[in-house]
Each structure stands twice: as structure tokens, then as C-alpha cells.
Amino acid sequence: MPDQTAQIVLDTIRQRRTVDLLKLNPDPVPDDVLEAVLTAGTWAPTHGKHQPWRFTVFTGEGRRRLADLFARAYAASSAKDAGSPEAQENQRVRVMKAPVWISLELHVPQPPRFPQWEEEHALAAAAQNILLAATAFGLASKWASGPAMISPLTAQELGAPELRGFIFLGYAAEQPKDSSRAPLAEKVVWVSE
């Protein structure tokens, strides 16, 4: 049986849910909570201590800059409705539905010392830490990677060599639904001899 600290970590992992934008309320997230969540991200494993992650955080009226950027990036994308003014406006509206947006920027040290995939996995581990810390603080979250969120135009505007999407955070307007996973026996092979 896990001790109390281990059980808290295990419960937080099981409680994390992806929550849609439309299921968030508009309440702002306190700065000290955001700082703690972002700090958790920086404690991800990273080969050679490269820490290839960078985050740009959009809150309050700063989200309007991101909303405009997403609209321009979407218009420049290969999405089938990229030229639609309604689709571009939808990008703006979507941004304002979450109180916090955090970019997931990949900054690989140059010259690279390790394979690209290792740096990408480090960023993914940082993102997972952010998602789990957000859950521990009672925040709802989602890692999103639509065309505007991984666009080279968005990356350039943020000064990021590459983007792996954005995490949005907020407080859930309703309790997220329970989830399940396949039994461990379907996913694990034990070798003991």
C-alpha cells in the first residue's frame, strides 16, 4: 500500500482530465498558482540538463494578442476553411474562453548534442508536469495542437524555433466525467527470470 504522499501523486494522475474550452468558467487563475504550475514543468527529466522547453503565458487582455495571432496563423494554414472569415473569427473567440494559454516551445540547443526525439520527449514531460500540477491545484486543462497552435507563423511571432501546441487552463464549470484505462495486463509484459 502506498504511503500518503505516493497516494496523493497517484490520485492526481488518475484525476487529470482533458476539459473542453466550452466547459471552463471565466475566473482568472492566480499568478502564484500559475508560477507553481510552470515551475513543475521545469522539473521534467531532460538529458544533459538541456531543458529545451520555453513557455509564453497569455492571460487577461494579453490573450487578445494570441487571439489575433491564431486568426492570422489559421488563415495562412492549409485547413480547408482557412480563407473563411468566420473560421478565423472562431480562432479569436476560442482563445478568450480560457483564462490562461501556455505555449509549448521547443528550443533545442545548437549545435544539438542529443537526438531531436529526446528533446521533444523532454518537452512532453514538461507538459505532463504542467497538466498534473494544474490538476493538483484544481484547474482543468487541455493540451491542444490545432493548425494555428503549431503554425510556423505562431512560432515565429513567439520567437520559438518550433511549437508543440498550447496548454489552456481554467476552472471547470462542471465536474469532469470519470475516465478509464485498459487493464494493466493488456499493456504490460512481465519478465522476471
What does this structure look like?
Its cofactor is FMN. By secondary structure, the protein is an alpha+beta fold. The protein has a single domain (4-186), classed as 3-Layer(aba) Sandwich (NADH Oxidase), CATH 3.40.109. It is built from six helices and six strands. It has helices at residues 4-15, 31-42, 62-75, 85-95, 116-136, 152-158, and strands at residues 24-25, 53-54, 57-59, 100-106, 140-144, 162-172. Strands 1, 2, 3, 4, 5 and 6 form a six-stranded antiparallel beta sheet that branches. Helix 3 (62-75) packs antiparallel against helix 6 (152-158). The chain is globular. The mean pLDDT is 93.
Shape: globular
Helix content: 25-40%
CATH architecture verdict? 3-Layer(aba) Sandwich
CATH superfamily annotation? NADH Oxidase
Q: How many domains in all?
A: 1
Structural class: alpha+beta
